[in-house]
Amino acid sequence: MPQIEQLATTYASQIFWLLVFFGIIFFVIGRGMVPKVMATMDGRDKQIADDLAAAEAARATADAEEESWRVQANKQRAEAQALIVAAKADAAKATEATLAVASARIDETLTAAEARIAAARAAALGEVEGVAAEAAQDIASRIAGLSIPADEAQAAVKGVLAHG
Amino acid sequence: MRVAEGKVDPVHQFTIESLFGTDQWAIGGYNIAFTNSALWMAITTVVLIVFVAGGAKRELVPGRWQMAVEGLTGFVDNLLMANIGKAGRKYLPYVFSLFAFILFANMLGLMPLALFGVHPFTSTSHFTVTGVLAIMSFAIVLIVGFAKHGLHFFSLFVPHGTPVLMIPIIFPIELISFMVRPFSLGLRLFVAMMAGHVLLEVLSGFVISGTNAGVGIFFLAALPSFLLMIGICALELLVAGIQAYVFALLTCVYLNDAENLH
Question: Is the ipTM, as predicted for this complex, more than 0.90?
Answer without folding.
Answer: no
